[in-house]
Amino acid sequence: MWGRDHPDEQLEEFIAARTQDLHHDAYQLTAAQQPAEQLVIAVLADMRRERVEMAQAGTAARLRMARIAARLDAPSEITDVSQLPSEFRVLARLSPRQRAVLLLQVVDNYDDRETARELQLSSRATAATLQSIPYDELPGASPHSGELRSLLEAFGDLAASPSATTTLADVHAVPPPPRRPWWVYVAVFVVIVLTIASLVITQSWHNDWLRSPEGLNHTHGTHFPAYTQGYKLVAIHDVAPGPAEDIAVGASGALALECHPGDRTVSIAVSSDITGTFSQNECGVDADGPNLTPARGTALVSISNFNHDTWPIAIYRKVPWRDYPVATGRFVVGHPKTLDEARRQTDGSGHRIPPVAAGTVLTMQGTAERPNGTFTGQLDIPASVGLTELDVIGLISPTTTGRFRVRLNGEAPWVSCASFTIARYTQQHPDDWCALYDRHIPQVDFSTVDPSWSVRSRRVTVELSVQHARGPWSLQVAADRYKRDAGAVDDGANG
Questions:
Q1: Contacts 24+ apart (CB under 8 A), 115-123
Q2: Most buried among 295, 358, 408, 453, using CB within 10 Å?
Q3: Is the pLDDT of residue 219 over 80?
Q4: Tell me, what's the pLDDT at 177?
Q5: Which residues cross the membrane (predicted)?
Q6: How many separate helices (H) and strands (E) can be counted in the chain?
């Protein structure tokens, strides 16, 4: 740095050694003697106050002068241009900014990005300045030609250099910048305090936001999407393993458990105001989204896995169709199950139980032209042989989002609506529809075992109501009779 004990001595030494070079560079930028001297004095006065490193003083002075010149984009007003040698007249008519760009690129070999950075110009302003330079009127017609470099150096040699003593005296004569009033420092202090306080408050808000549904979804570290399967995520509730805890779900809701995808053995037990509902399902995410367990009112939730102190339970609320962001395209249709697989019965050992009387298969279809409405078909019931039970199996294969409702002789069957991993008895929800909202379009299967009308009628009226579908679908229904003593029929296997 400039010496703290004798700063003027080191400054005088620097000026004595470099005064000619400084005025040479300043003249290249200003194209006139008086402005060049003023530019040198202003830059040296600033460097004296800032105590710039001596080893970097020459380069620093050159770049500072170029930076000041680059602020002036208007052509230089020189009245005696005609008195200059003809080879210098084009340079003299350029703006200080144009000459500053030329100086850095031609003499110092800076590229466009470095030029913009050193002159504190935007890339667009630098490019515009380069395009405005009339290279075709300059020797070499290229920004990197040796002839143009020689011209710039010769142009700077036109400058006259005052003595080091005169330059130093002029630097000392530059008055220091006015001191800022006390209230400026107070204002700066207040701004700093408010900035720190706002950062602390913002961080606190951010931490709270990360525990909200929006924050959890934003971090992409959750299996709880904002909307899924007709539900909206409304809260996250931490449940400790052990005794059951109460969770307020609302009139129509569902719960989901998040856990590590590699450990799907964790399960929750849920009991709520839905009559007869006590379900237990594994955590994690399947192809359709989170495993949702329907609940209503106040749900009693328990977890038996003690690997964590608490487990996050997502609380979802049913959203009306008109308010849900229903997918309208780019559907992923998954129809892996066949009707034969759906109607297959097995005993307790996993062996298949053949039907004693197999019914015919009813097939109904909705077309792209008419996918919505109420569709009716008749399914023949097979004749009874001994003590048998009737098993009606149905499989709906949609291709788009939509709402589907099945009635068998006016009664609601058991339905696995693809929204949940458990079957639900729709007779408890007579107005319920099986709704597919999201892009993944699975199959919907339903069943009923030994219905009350099996002994009164030899036909089943199948009624399928469809709303909001955007494309074709198919429905297959079959009725079979099985021996009652052939083994217990697992209702859930059909749903």
A1: 118/63, 118/66, 118/67, 119/66, 119/67, 119/70, 120/67, 120/70, 121/70, 121/97
A2: 295
A3: no
A4: 67
A5: 182-201
A6: 13, 23
Residue 207: pLDDT band by 50, 70, 90 thresholds?
A: low
In angstroms, the CA 472 to CA 467 distance is 12
pLDDT score, position 254: 86
Provide the sign of the torsion angle of the four alpha carbons 268, 291, 394, 493, taken in this order.
Answer: negative
Q: Which residues pair with 271 in a beta bridge?
A: 278, 300
Q: Are 491 and 449 in contact (CB under 8 A)?
A: yes
Q: Which range has the top average pLDDT, 149-158, 433-442, 462-471?
A: 462-471
The two structure tokens encoding residue 265: 């053995």
Top CATH class, 7-173? mainly alpha
Question: CA 190, 196, 198, 204 torsion: positive or negative?
Answer: negative
Domain spans of the chain? 7-173, 216-323, 332-494
Burial of 463 (C-beta count, 10 Å sphere; 0-12/13-18/19+): middle
Predicted confidence at residue 367, as pLDDT, reads: 94
Quote the CA–CA distance of 183 and 82 in Å, as a whole number: 53
Give the model's confidence band at 78: pLDDT under 50 very low, under 70 low, under 90 confident, else very high: low
DSSP SS3 for 229 = coil
Q: Give the CATH fold of the 216-323 domain.
A: Jelly Rolls (2.60.120)
Tokens found for residue 7: 């700063």
In the predicted model, is pLDDT for residue 50 greater than 60?
yes
The pTM score is 0.52
Q: What is the mean pLDDT of residues 314-323?
A: 88
User: Read out DSSP for 391-436?
Assistant: EEEEEEEESS-EEEEEEETTB--EEE-SSBSS-EEGGGSTT--EEE
Q: How confident is the model at residue 5 (pLDDT cuts 50, 70, 90)?
A: very low
Q: Residue 369 has what DSSP assignment?
A: S
